[in-house]
């Protein structure tokens, strides 16, 4: 592939914007997908002001398979094939397992896991044809250290971690890296982790040679 094209699904003003800006500084084109045009359009406009090629596509829901595939296809048409996919989709439902509605669990899983699968499948044909590419699925410590009041997101992040490990095993022979970044901390508020450091990590992962690939990376490293 001649140009790096970053696709960020479930992009927002926090981590998604930080990752997009980091890749744009390195010359990557950036395609953003999220539910709302605001602030998505502003993030894309800021990237274009900095000199990057950037497009934004708002869809009703990242769990909408047809809409998500269409959005990623549009990015491909406008910018070229996605070379790095970052999937940030997540749905928080505050309920302990004994009180969690089945519909809420299904919804959290669809947003957090099924959407990631659909997004990966949408960009993989071009990556396989090129013999290179990177899939980064944003995980959470909730997937490995369950917290009862956040059971739904814990189940979804555990599923996402398993999906990333499976993708890594399948795709490495094709030259495509798949990894999940298990984030141990919060991304908003006074105790938020440094989004710039996480964005730097995502860029470094994209640049790793195959001999250094890992199916799971933790930030910061868990003790």
What does this molecule look like?
By secondary structure, the chain is of the alpha/beta class. The chain has a single domain (5-219), classed as Rossmann fold, CATH 3.40.50. It is built from six helices and seven strands. It has a seven-stranded parallel β-sheet with strand order 3-2-1-4-5-6-7, with helices on both faces. Helix 1 packs across helix 6 (195-207).
CATH superfamily: NAD(P)-binding Rossmann-like Domain
* Architecture (CATH level 2) name: 3-Layer(aba) Sandwich
Number of domains: 1
Mean of residue pLDDT values:
94
Globally, the shape reads: globular
What percent of the residues sit in helical stretches (DSSP H or I)?
40-55%
**Biggest sheet details:** 7 strands, parallel
Looking at the structure, the CATH topology is Rossmann fold
Identify the CATH class.
Answer: Alpha Beta
**SSE order:** EHEHEHEHEHEHE
- Given helix and strand content, the structural type is alpha/beta
Main sheet: which strands, in order across?
Answer: 3-2-1-4-5-6-7
Strand content: 15-25%
How many β-strand stretches?
Answer: 7
Low-confidence stretches: none
Distance between the termini: 38 Å
């Amino acid at each position: 592939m001649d140009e790096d094209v970053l696709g960020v699904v479930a992009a927002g003003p926090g981590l998604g914007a930080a990752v997009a800006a980091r890749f744009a500084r390195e010359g990557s084109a950036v395609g953003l997908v999220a539910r709302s045009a605001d602030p998505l359009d502003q993030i894309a406009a800021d990237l274009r002001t900095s000199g990057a090629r950037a497009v934004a596509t708002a869809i009703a829901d990242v769990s909408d398979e047809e809409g998500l595939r269409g959005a990623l296809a549009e990015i491909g048409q406008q910018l070229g094939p996605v070379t790095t996919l970052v999937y940030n989709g997540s749905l928080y439902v505050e309920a302990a397992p004994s009180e969690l509605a089945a519909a809420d669990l299904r919804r959290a899983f669809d947003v957090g896991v099924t959407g990631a699968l659909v997004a990966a499948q949408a960009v993989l044909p071009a990556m396989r044809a090129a013999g290179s590419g990177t899939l980064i699925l944003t995980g959470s410590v909730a997937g490995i250290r369950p917290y009862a009041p956040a059971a739904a997101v814990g189940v979804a992040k555990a599923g996402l971690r398993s999906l990333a490990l499976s993708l890594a095993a399948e795709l490495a022979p094709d030259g495509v890296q798949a990894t999940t970044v298990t984030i141990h901390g919060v991304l908003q508020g006074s105790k938020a982790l440094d989004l710039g450091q996480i964005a730097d990590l995502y860029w470094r992962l994209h640049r790793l040679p195959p001999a250094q690939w890992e199916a799971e990376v933790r930030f910061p490293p868990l003790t």
